[in-house]
Specification:
The complex is a heterodimer. Chain A is built from 13 helices and 22 strands. Chain A is of the alpha/beta class. Chain A folds into two domains: 2-74 and 89-142 and 194-280 and 449-509, FAD/NAD(P)-binding domain (3-Layer(bba) Sandwich); 145-176 and 289-364 and 385-440, Cholesterol Oxidase, domain 2, CATH 3.30.410. In chain A, strands 1, 2, 3, 4, 9, 10, 11, 12 and 22 form a nine-stranded mixed β-sheet that branches. In chain A, strands 7-15-16-17-14-20 form a six-stranded antiparallel β-sheet, with helices on one face. In chain A, a hairpin with a 6-residue loop joins β18 (367-371) and β19. The longest helix of chain A is centred in the C-terminal third of the chain and has 18 residues, at 389-406. The radius of gyration of chain A is 22 Å and the shape is globular. The two termini of chain A are 27 Å apart. The relative contact order of chain A is 0.19. By secondary structure, chain B is an all-alpha fold. Chain B has a domain at 12-147. Chain B is elongated and about 85 Å long. The chains are: A alpha/beta, B mainly alpha. The interface between A and B is large, with 76 and 69 residues.
Chain lengths: 510, 214
């Protein structure tokens, strides 16, 4: 199995069932699992990192949005919540979501962490407690603000609009080194500038002696009394998921970092594990997002520039965050109004367009994850709370204000029942006055949380502050499911900081 | 007598629903004739010939793209997409398109103005599920339309050519489907990391997106 001195296995390498014994089995190679694996290896533990997807090199990236999603996302990128229908995605590849996200790194605001501690019985999850972990991850990944020379006009217009209105804004900090402004974060960085887990933490874990098993679909956590004894599942073919060989990893400790939509399913399929509180799979929250498109008189050339290079946290306490956005043109064009020649006319305006979005801290909008019958995919029941709908409409109105302040001639808010094009602030006021229902909004929600939430009281949460399941001595969770509430900002850096803390606790305990 | 009448009616219904589709110009990977016809019709109604972007949905081979996308999808998603196509193609047999008796035909058999009117009715419906069906179908067709290099070139949205650095992990990760033993790269193939030089707006386009040489 060792080629080039590292123990990495891909689908074509498996020629028999696999049975191994390690100190720690880590399930999932995204920002949570990859950090845990590397930190544990550094602590001298023998680690097996299991990932269901394959490794992707730039030769395997597809700049076409649809094909890229079909290859890198679970359910081909067509996953959606039921209740309030909202598309949501989860990556299936080595490095997880870090391969196909826009690399945004934000620390969870102090006031949010304070609120978590007060409301969820936590004692050591304040900003000062997490700072060493944020700092270490930030230094390792080179997290820094997007330099001005790769922002592009799309991002700079947002800055200008915010400045004109006196709204605080800033270049987004990202885990990127050497960005060229290709705007291709969502389909994989061909410049190899994004410091995704597959080229950072995972290689370091490999160098340190970890075994990395790709195409390994964990189907069960094995337990004995209060102890997890390992994991088991099937080797599965990339893309088709066709099972071939079986595997079993015996371990002294298990860390689940399969993502907040998959970890509860795995717990449920393993015999409703870690659920004496009844909270596993519950409390599902998102940052539901809405976006608006502004058309300017002069070319914006939105294809150039950091995918998401500027943001405003000015309204965090009001419940929303604003940011710039770019995605494969096909994905953005999906939200354009009209059909026929009218649609084509609008498509022709894309070179003059900027797209900005808002994500909401919708703590009232909760749901749950349940296993779908006969599948390891989740069913996501979730509803946008009626009181959160005006919040998102309000955020759209603020985006419209920024667009007009930046010089846009037209804003397309993408809300059913509201004019498709708004030409002035006066017209945009309808976003504040018109009764908007959840189904009127075009939502997207790619940050998901809370399905295995941490809580100081074992009766009300699944894990403790260090990520250890209350019901087990050696079963840990290290993904965004442990957040007690939505963090109000993009979660990746916090996932990594919490994962690092969990790894250190685990290494100390075992 | 009644049995014969029912049989004739059922036969007529089956013909109206399933028969009479043209043969596909190229062999399809996943879609059936009727599904290809529906997607091509929707694509042309969404992106008719001429106008601000010259290429039509049919010229952009949207149906071929959707066929490849469906083939690349997992069984459950494939089934859902097929159900979507079936629903949209035959909904006009229950809710006819405007324009009298001629509107009581499959979507792909309607004339262009009727098709556009039907799309608009779904798009602006007061019922969320109808709008959702329309949005889903339009999303698939839009993905296909924007997969066309000439459409992207016209809009100046085609991806740039990028010289991709080779990092150490690239020496370890084989092409998907290949074994690690097949890897031929060594440390001498490593190249310097990106220096962060911004791409120029007139930079060469990625292979496959550049204007074909005449």
């Amino acid at each position: 199995m060792r080629e080039n001195g590292v123990d990495l296995r891909v689908f074509a390498d498996y020629d028999r069932d696999v049975t191994e014994s390690v100190d720690v089995a880590v399930v999932g190679s995204g920002p949570g699992g990859a950090v845990v694996a590397k930190e544990l290896v550094d602590a001298g533990l023998r680690v097996a990192l299991l990932e269901e997807g394959p490794p992707f090199t730039p030769d395997e990236y597809r700049v076409d949005g649809g094909i890229s999603m079909a290859r890198t996302m679970r359910e081909g990128g067509l996953r959606a919540t039921v209740g309030t229908v909202m598309p949501t995605m989860q990556a299936i590849c080595l490095g997880g979501g870090s391969l196909v996200n826009s690399a945004i790194c934000n620390r969870t605001p102090d006031f949010v962490l304070e609120s978590w501690c007060e409301r969820f019985g936590l004692k050591h999850t304040r900003a000062a407690d997490l700072a060493p972990h944020y700092d270490a991850v930030g230094e390792y990944l080179g997290i820094s603000q997007t330099p001005e020379n790769v922002l592009g006009r799309r991002n700079l217009l947002f800055r200008d609009g915010c400045r004109a209105l006196g709204i605080d804004s800033e270049p987004i900090a990202r885990n990127v080194r050497g960005c060229r402004g290709s705007g291709e974060c969502f389909t994989g960085c061909r410049s190899r500038a994004k410091q995704s887990m597959d080229i950072t933490y995972v290689p370091d874990a490999l160098r340190g002696g970890a075994s990395v098993l790709t195409s390994a679909r964990v189907e069960m956590v094995r337990t004995s009394g209060r102890r997890a004894t390992g994991v088991a599942g099937h080797i599965v073919a990339p893309f088709s998921g066709r099972p071939s060989h079986r595997f079993r990893i015996d371990a002294r400790a298990v860390v689940l970092a399969a993502g907040c939509m998959a970890t509860p399913v795995l717990l449920a399929r393993s015999g409703d594990l870690a659920n004496r509180s009844g909270q596993a799979g519950r409390n599902l929250q998102f940052h539901p997002g809405v976006a608006a498109m502004g058309i300017f008189e002069e070319r914006v050339d939105p294809q150039f520039g950091a995918t998401q290079g500027y943001q405003s946290k000015h309204f965090l306490r009001d419940g929303y965050k604003l940011e710039t956005l770019w995605a494969p043109p096909a994905v953005l064009a999906v939200r354009m109004p009209g059909s026929g020649h009218a649609l084509k006319q609008r498509l022709a305006e894309v070179p003059f367009a900027a797209i900005w979005d808002a994500i909401g801290s919708c703590n009232r909008s909760v749901g749950r994850v349940v296993p779908r019958r006969g599948s390891l995919d989740p069913r996501l029941d979730w509803r946008l709370h009626p009181e959160d709908t005006p919040l998102l409409a309000h955020a759209l109105h603020t985006l419209a204000e920024i667009f007009f302040a930046a010089g846009a001639k037209t804003v397309m808010p993408g809300v059913h029942g509201i004019p498709e094009e708004l030409h002035s602030l006066d017209e945009a006021r309808i976003l504040r006055t018109h009764p908007i229902r959840p189904g009127d909004l075009v939502l997207g929600g790619n940050h998901a949380f809370c399905t295995t939430r941490m809580h100081g009281d074992p009766a009300q949460g699944v894990v403790d502050e260090l990520g250890r399941c209350h019901d087990f001595d050696n079963l840990y969770i290290a993904d965004s499911g442990v957040f007690p509430q939505c963090p109000s900002v993009n979660p990746m850096w916090t996932v990594m900081a919490l994962a690092r803390r969990t790894a250190h606790a685990l290494a100390g305990a075992h | 007598m009644w049995i014969a009448i029912v049989a004739v009616l059922v036969g007529y219904a089956l013909v109206r629903v399933f028969a009479g589709y043209p043969a596909a110009a190229q062999p399809a990977e996943a879609l059936r004739r009727r599904e290809l016809a529906l997607v091509a019709a929707v694509a042309d109604a969404l992106f008719p010939p001429g106008g601000a972007v010259a290429e039509s949905g049919r010229e952009a081979d949207v149906a071929g793209y959707v066929d490849r996308l469906v083939a690349a999808s997992q069984p459950r998603q494939r089934m859902l997409m097929r159900a979507l196509f079936f629903l949209f193609e035959h909904a006009t047999l229950i809710f006819p398109a405007a324009g009298g008796p001629g509107g009581l035909r499959r979507f792909s058999s309607l004339d262009a103005s009727q098709q556009e009117a039907v799309l608009e009715r779904w798009r602006t419906s007061r019922l969320f599920p109808r709008r959702l069906v329309f949005t889903s179908l339009r999303a698939l067709c839009t993905l296909g339309y924007f997969a066309s290099p000439s459409v992207l070139r016209h809009l100046r949205l085609a991806p740039f050519a990028i010289e991709t650095p080779v990092c150490e992990a690239d020496l370890w990760y084989p092409p998907i489907g290949a074994s690690r033993a097949s890897l031929r790269r060594g440390r001498t193939d490593l190249t310097p990391a990106s220096a962060g030089v911004p791409l120029a707006l007139d930079a060469p386009l990625a292979p496959g997106y550049a204007e074909p040489q005449r």
